[in-house]
Amino acid sequence: MLSQKFSKTFSIGDGREVTIETGRLARQADGSVTVTMGNSILLATVVATEEPKPGQEFFPLSVDYMEKFASAGRIPGSFFKREGRLSDGEILISRLIDRALRPLFPDDYFCEVQVIVTLISSDAEVMPDSLACLAASAALAVSTVPIQEIISEVRVSRIDGKFRINPSRSEMEKSDMDFIIAATEKNIMMVEGEAKECSEEDIVKAIEAGHEAIKVQIKAQQELRDMVGVTSKREYAKPEENVVLRKRVEEFAKARIDADSRANLPKTERKENYKKLYEELKEVITKEANLAEGEDLSDETKKLIKNYLADLQYDVVRDMILNDKIRLDGRGLDQVRPLDMEIDVLPTPHGSALFTRGETQSLTTVTLGTPLDELLVESAAKSEYSKFILHYNFPPFSTGEVKFLRGPGRREVGHGNLAQRSLKQMLPGADYAYTLRVVSDILESNGSSSMATVCAGSLALFDAGVPMPKHVAGVAMGLISKEGKFAVLTDILGDEDHLGDMDFKVTGTRDGICGIQMDIKVDGLSMEIMRNALEQARRGRMHILDAMYNCIPEARSDVKPHAPRMVKMFIDREYIGAVIGPGGKVIQEIQRETGTTINIEEKNNMGEVSIFGTDKEKVDKAHNWVKGIVAVPTVGDEYEAVVKSIMPYGAFVEFLPGKQGLLHISEVSWKRLETLEGVLNEGDKVKVKLTGTDPKTGKFKLSRKILLPKPEGQQRMDRPQTGNGQDRQQENRPQENQ
Hints:
Keywords: Cytoplasm, Magnesium, Metal-binding, Nucleotidyltransferase, RNA-binding, Transferase. InterPro entries: ExoRNase_PH_dom1, ExoRNase_PH_dom2, ExoRNase_PH_dom2_sf, KH_dom, KH_dom_type_1, KH_dom_type_1_sf, NA-bd_OB-fold, PNPase. Residues 700-738 are annotated as: Disordered. By secondary structure, this protein is an alpha+beta fold. It has five domains: 6-228, Ribosomal Protein S5, domain 2; 243-324, Arc Repressor Mutant, subunit A, CATH 1.10.10; 339-551, 2-Layer Sandwich (Ribosomal Protein S5, domain 2); 565-626, Ribosomal Protein S8, Chain: A, domain 1; 637-707, CATH 2.40.50.140. A hairpin with a 4-residue loop joins β14 (375-378) and β15. α1 crosses α8 (410-424) and α5 packs across α7 (299-324).
């Protein structure tokens, strides 16, 4: 063997084991491991440059999670038959890893780091997203890339009232809570997930259960690192530090930043004042440097001034909030910005809402589609269709910027996913035939636009007539903590998010939490702080929900007149072929004649028929047509029949789609008819009654005259008579058996 293999196996309960291995694959990477559970195998690699790029001012970490279709024995369905750009699902898992890893690196580390996690073998029952961050962290642990701590990530689900770590796919179908939790040995780093209206205390218990499982995984990584022999991390070039310049920046700018922070200024004015302060500071320091005429400060000095000014703003604003309980816009710590909301703001979409909270605004639309509009979601393990789609758009004008318009980035995918998971909890079940597409266009942004999307989405769905039982709202929380003191902020601004220690988004109804996304930037978040943040978020959510119910208290009872109408019915599976017809002839005729769209699926040994159209009368016509095809004729029922052909002895009429019977000449009228000429013609509509079936042939026997009033003379002839009179009565009696 050319390589030495190291491996560590640990248990996650119920006899399930996970193995971390290094030293066999991808040996030229700075760190590489495989994580195996069942037949699922993930390969994680990490590579970091030795030196940062010249002038680098931020940490360039890239994390990519990808699934090889070969891992599940499948060929991609694309035209090229190879994996393409990352799917939304892969992007979301990449974000889960990235958000957990990023705080592990030193603040002054600017070397480029690339983490790639690949699913190389798939297990139908093992969900790889719960193992991906473990793999990434283990790859970093066995490398010399400088991380401060080891972490891991687990899925915590509640199934039948009990928390379970990393459940199988089939077990997840019974789950009412689903959270991914990342943590170090001591601190929670990231939480994301959804629930069917769980309580705040349920969230705390889920986090505690997840943290205990994570400690086991961290210990296994530490033992693997020791086996490999990694005892220290590499040295790296640290940014230049100028103590004198930092002190001068503080002397000149601290009072100005403090005054602007307390002035309750709009975001744009505060931003403009900060730019002016930077220019004035550069000018003062240039004069004090006694430079030769025409000489300017070095680029390195300008960069240091900018960095020190940003550090000063960070400290001043945080101290103001923490010590004086004053926020940048003058609100109290638990106060939500002014709310304004309106529904039915656009005439053509099937549902629309405009939601404004302070300087954050979402214009959201709802489109009702047919099952043919469902979204195909493919992963290595499976392909499935989704009937609920939510897209989030963040154009540059929403923040007053000029940028190229490109496709949605990872941020847009992640924000849209949080809103989708939250609203999904209140949507009608599988028997709701519409495909729903919600689109949130952010028109202004200063604070959480994803939470504005949740609120606007709920309002727009109510406006569209989607039968949701409750509104779902969301609020973004922040945290400032220092030396044992902390302040929890409700409805954070963009600057408060940037300067704070936590970004904590909570969505839910009046009765419980539907979704959470939390990123923590500091160590030492206690359960006490967590409980305080959750309770404050609950109060903020209730305030927003009250305003939403005042706007529209319940979903419209019907869709709008221009929205597609929908009728769903279930038929015996044996009739599916009859509705479709040979080569689709019957269903195509129905759609052509009624202008509707019809979708038929076999579910649970029944045929599910969904009929869509914009005209209610035409939808009803198609509905009745299908009902006629599958209806079982009942003796004694009346039908509107159409004459199909004329014979000397009567007319064949179609009284239900695909079902014909003989209307005997003697059953057309109370009068004795020698011929039907002039009485009935092909294509005529005639009302008939099913009087029976021929016991020999099983053919249907129909009567028209039985529905007509008897002539008076006929009634006298019907009375009992003797002799020839009886013969005459028999002659004129309805001939039901002919």
